[in-house]
Amino acid sequence: MGAPDRLVLLADPAVRSAIAGEFGREVEYYAATGSTQDRARQLADAGHPGALIVAEEQSSGRGRQGRSWVAQPGTSLLASWLFRPLPADPALFALLSGVAIARALTDLGIPEARLKWPNDVQLGGKKVAGVLADAVTGANGGALVLGIGVNVHQRDLGELSGTATSLAREARAADRLALLARIDRELRRVASDSDERRVFLEEWRLRSSTLGREVEVRSAGAAVRGFARSIADDGALVLETASGSHRVLAGEVFVA
Ligand code: BTN
Questions:
Q1: Per-residue pLDDT at 3
Q2: How far is the CA of 146 from the centre of ligand 1 (A)?
């Protein structure tokens, strides 16, 4: 591991409580857990007002579209935020979280992140971070559990190396605590009001690696091919297809 990494400081309750004051939410830190997303979901279902769950290792990390999210212990930033009330439409908020990650990386001297629709953050054309949003409804009102995984220190991505990368491989390793603090700051900004969300959406468009290309979007067994023309204000991908303009709300993009 190149750069010093201070995430382990969160193991200290005094540090967590200082950070909770700054982040405006309770912080939990696990050396190992099943999934930070599941823990945040548990708190959401119990009516918790807001939390940030961080882990060094997950035994059942979850990705989008039912996939698993695998990371060697201590290599990644693995974190889930519980926002209550629901800050925005979950799909839009997840999309804009990609901008929050890209801005955080810029702040740490890595300005070149690009965004692949809907929620992937890329460096050198490969995925370096992903976002998962779970909307929570219930007697306690709506909430959002937002999970972020950033590959930070991995030197070798093993069988994922064709499509995934890490900060250490593409740019420079970062301190995961500094990264967490910067992502948190940008997420709070985007959660705060709709004007900020408009600014973030414009930045998403500028950082996009999807727009302006012929793509195929696959979702639930169906596929749509077309030219990725724009992102609508609700985060939908607008494709020009042989049969006209087509809005896509979810799926996986492949360059055609
Ligand atoms: C994706 O498929 O791109 C989304 C990946 C989200 C992974 C993060 S890691 C922290 C949080 N806990 C989980 O189980 N998943 C998310």
A1: 59
A2: 9
Question: What average pLDDT does the chain have?
Answer: 95
CA of 70 to the centre of ligand 1 (A): 9
Instruction: Report residue 97's pLDDT band, with 50, 70 and 90 as the boundaries.
Output: very high
| Integer-rounded Cα radius of gyration of the chain | 18
Given this model, what pLDDT does residue 256 score?
77
Q: Side chain identity at 161, as an amino acid letter? A: S
Residue whose CA is at the smallest distance from ligand 1 atom 11: 147
- Report the predicted TM-score, pTM, of the whole model to 2 decimal places: 0.97
Helix axes of 176-192 and 90-107: crossing angle, nearest 10 degrees: 140
Tokens at residue 220, please?
């639930």
Residue linked to tokens 């290599």:
75
Atom 2, ligand 1: which residue's CA is nearest?
63
Euclidean distance between CA atoms 104 and 111, whole angstroms: 9
pLDDT band at 239 (very low <50, low <70, confident <90, very high): very high
What residues line ligand 1, using a CB cutoff of 6 Å?
35-37, 58, 61-64, 67, 69, 78-80, 120, 130-132, 147-149
- Ligand 1 nearest atom to the CA of residue 76, by list position: 9
